[in-house]
Amino acid sequence: MKKILIIRFSSIGDIVLTSPIIRCLYEQLNADIHYLTKKNFEEILKANPYIKKVWTIQEKVSEVASELKKESFDCIIDLHKNIRSQQIRTILHKTNYISFDKLNLKKWLLVNFKLNFLPQKHLVDRYFEALSQLNVINDEKGLDFFINDSINTESNYIHFKNELKNKKYICLVVGAAHFTKRLPISWMVDLITQIEHKTIVLLGGENEKKIGENLYNQCPNKIINTTGLLSINASAAIIKEAQAIITPDTGMMHIAAAFEKKTISIWGSTVTDFGMYPYLRKDKRHHSKIVQNQGLSCRPCSKIGKSNCPKKHFKCMKEIDINEVLLALK
């Protein structure tokens, strides 16, 4: 193998979970690694030393099709497995490709009938099973995240970096892509007020700005609010220097795992059985604490999250035991 194209269009966490594949392909096959993703997520991959070129699209594969044809890839590794990735394989006339079983039927059975036939394996390990035909094996070194030096030109990042200098702080991720993955505001206020002698740094994107402002207004003396003010890479740099991170099932959870941070992940409508919990090398797995409401028969109600609670009570998040989180922090 001389030249390999990896396809994963989105999102933050899913792309970070492909990092062991990138590293092992590069180190074990000595191949040129190209990566195709969406433009929004280019910064996650740009500083990765194992990638020769990052290709991006806004929406359509036709944006890069003609240029990709010129590359004459030896193999395509499709880690997204959707219509767009299939279009790429067709356009490039590649029969030499590798993909993986997304286990959608088994996930559907778990969501709809609570029948669990899913393998007790992380998604990363299932990726490596698919790569066995290339004789590529898992080096067991965990995830990678490489921070782009461009963060040093971000005025907001420089401001918060200086504000946090010599401070011991905990990161709290306040948002998620879907409502049923998000921590309730009242629950976060209770948590923040009970955490002693620590600064709490709020992390979130533009969509979480109002949540961050709400929390800051209620707990101004304990919070540094960065929501909507930092790039993905700058948020990662803040996580890298944190003592711990409290997060729902989000991309920031996987970035924290890449830095082997102490991570308390709180699970609502989704469950770890889907195989996307924090992925750590064996000697660091004690750094991950999973917190979830085990007593609900309605979980999981979705494999990716929903815009509202189907049962209208949202107990999966509202009834998370704060003491369990505080104990994990200690």
Write up this protein.
With 330 residues, this protein is α/β, with parallel strands linked by helices. Helices cover 34% and strands 16% of the residues. It is built from 14 helices and eleven strands. The strands form two sheets. The protein has a six-stranded parallel sheet with strand order 8-7-6-9-10-11, with helices on both faces. Helix 5 links the parallel strand 4 and strand 5.
CATH topology of the largest domain: Rossmann fold
Strand order of the largest sheet: 8-7-6-9-10-11
Tally of individual domains: 2
Largest sheet: 6 strands, parallel
Number of separate helices:
14
DSSP, total strands: 11
What percent of residues are in strands? Answer: 15-25%
Average predicted local confidence, pLDDT: 96
CATH architecture of the largest domain: 3-Layer(aba) Sandwich
Radius of gyration: 20 Å
Shape: globular
Low-pLDDT sequence parts = none
In N-to-C order, the SSE pattern is EHHEHEHEHEHHHEHEHEHEHEEHH
The CATH H-level homologous superfamily of the largest domain: Glycogen Phosphorylase B
**Helix amount:** 25-40%
At the first level of CATH, what is the class of the largest domain?
Alpha Beta
Give the termini separation. 48 Å
Structural class: alpha/beta
Topology:
Elements: E1 3-7, H1 12-16, H2 19-29, E2 32-38, H3 42-45, E3 53-57, H4 65-69, E4 75-78, H5 83-91, E5 97-98, H6 104-113, H7 123-130, H8 155-164, E6 169-173, H9 185-194, E7 199-203, H10 209-218, E8 223-225, H11 232-240, E9 244-248, H12 251-258, E10 262-267, E11 288-292, H13 315-318, H14 322-329
Parallel strand pairs: 1-2, 1-4, 2-3, 4-5, 6-7, 6-9, 7-8, 9-10, 10-11
